[in-house]
Amino acid sequence: MVFAVAMSGPSPPPLYLHSPPFRNQNIVPRSSNYLKTNVKPGLCSLSSHADPNSKPKPLVAAPEKPMKGSDVLVEALEREGVKHVFAYLGGASMEIHQALTRSNIIQNVLPRHEQGGVFTAEGYARASGRPGVFIATSGPGATNIVSCLEDALLDSIPIVAITGRVPRRMIGTDAFQETPSVEVTRSITKLVFYVEDIPYIVKEAFFLANSGRPSPVLIVIPKDIQQQLGVPNWDKPLQLPGYSFRLPKSPETGHLQQILRLISDSKKPVLYVGGGCMNSSEELRRFVDLTGIPVATTLMGLGAFPSTDELSLQILGMHGTRYANYAVDKSDLLLAFGVRFDGRVTGKIEAFASRAKIVHIDIDPAEIGKNKQPHLSICGDVKKALAGMNRLLEENGEKYDFSSWREELTEQKAKYPLSYKTIGEAIPPQYAIQVLDELTNGNAIISSGVGQHQMWAAQFYNYREPRQWLSSSGLGAMGFGLPAAMGAAVARPDAVVVDIDGDGSFIMNVQKLATVRVENLPVKIMLLNNQHLGMVVQWEDRFYKANRAHTYLGNPSYKEAKIFPDMLKFAEACHIPAARVTKKSEVREAIEKMLETPGPYLLDVIVPHQEHVLPMIPSGGAFKDDINEGDGRAAY
């Protein structure tokens, strides 16, 4: 073993599972001999790969002083610059929590459920760009994080998850709270470590989570490793020649020149921008300034380019604006940067951008040509590619004239704006979001659950900067909104953070209100409460003759005359101020009060369940099939 003192009985060989830096490739196991190369018995090793001047100095133990494995883990996290973890303890992780109490640097934000805890770590990572760290116990603690790891994988979010495990001698005995967490999570993480060499593995985990295509990494630490004493050695460098070799190189100038030639030859170019552009917003905006090409974003790409810009087409896809989908349908050149041609964007793949030449730039080679074959592709960092093209454009001084194309799209914007109906004093959910946008000047960090409220929050709030919008996009995990907002509030304490949630999603992690109150996190919750699973109701209305199949979330005995459950009581139980609004004329004042109240606040906004998210392209449909009118008050 690498971190150990004498043990009774033979130890099983370390299990060390690797997947390559990108998805859809074979898992490559590394031998135990490699693990022990140049490492003296009883030592661990780690050297920080980031600038030490940018991190707080950890409390380093005296040279040659033995440390528990749990203390080594905490110091390794400190050396990675970690200041906050989201950890829920159990028997197999108690040692780690005891070590956390001895840290002067790391604060644990205690969740009330493991799933909510990882979503909080995701919110932290999405809002800050730094890896979020979550710690759980073995057994049910480990299995409760599975959905969150998949969510982070699909949305390319850097998460370092750590779980305890039963002592090694008990693995395979069906011991209490023993779960094969390595095997369960192998296909939904970039990397899984069953760890004995704690410091080196922690360093490697952070590097891999945040390099290439960001992804979750899981570290599994048996309890006996946490308890053992050893003398850590922090000086072993990373040895990842295979991984480093596969990381994309800087794009070649010749390839970038080919893209510029395609732009010169085009008449109707469109930028299709996704979450892969979150770190290249500045370069993207400069590229648009130089070229004048209109920009449509995915749900993950919101904020990479300001929604208020005249060249913004806002979101495209199933619930995208009609003018964004029109632009893609009529385009002769589609510049797809940091995207994966997801089915919710493309609809019928054969009909998507069928008139256009396609340029695809993405850091993950598995995404190139996976769903849509490009005419020209670059596997690399979008930030470097945009910077390179901007340099070439500035050097050659070439100017493009797409004014007629932009005028055509401006006409589409005027003809098919995002809109909604107002019926009496009923509150249109879109209106509540518009008021929130006005009162926050579009500067708040917005999280959401999953459903109609998520789409309305994407459509009617104007995102101006990257990392303002936090949403479970690929997996569509309900219960995401509140914990993600909490993580954002921890990462960016000076920001206004609002969870725009639905009653169905909110109640899935309602226990997080306890954490919000205890930590006094200034999270504002604007609950669009329609007493239904609204998005499923919309599909029932459109495709199932409005037959309700368990989509009503209220108490049937009340016959929709009374709100159930009473969300204000949940807030009251956790000593969080709350209010309910039922009339449109009261909305502005109620939101103002929510924003002005110090600390957390819950605003229960009662909205009609008949509202539909429009436009809508039915699943598997094409632009020609889009729906632009109607709601649940009509029959289909």
Overview of this protein structure:
There is one protein chain. The protein has 636 residues and is α/β, with parallel strands linked by helices. It has 24 helices and 22 strands. The strands form four sheets. A seven-stranded mixed sheet has the order 1-8-9-7-6-4-5. Strands 13-12-11-14-15-16 form a six-stranded parallel sheet, with helices on both faces. Strands 18-17-19-20-22-21 form a six-stranded parallel sheet, sandwiched between helices. Helix 4 (114-128) packs across helix 19, helix 13 (322-330) runs antiparallel to helix 16 (403-415) and helix 17 crosses helix 18. The longest helix is centred in the first third of the chain and has 15 residues, at 114-128. The radius of gyration is 26 Å and the shape is globular. It starts with 15 loop residues before the first strand and ends in a 30-residue tail after the last strand. Mean pLDDT is 89; it is low at 1-54.
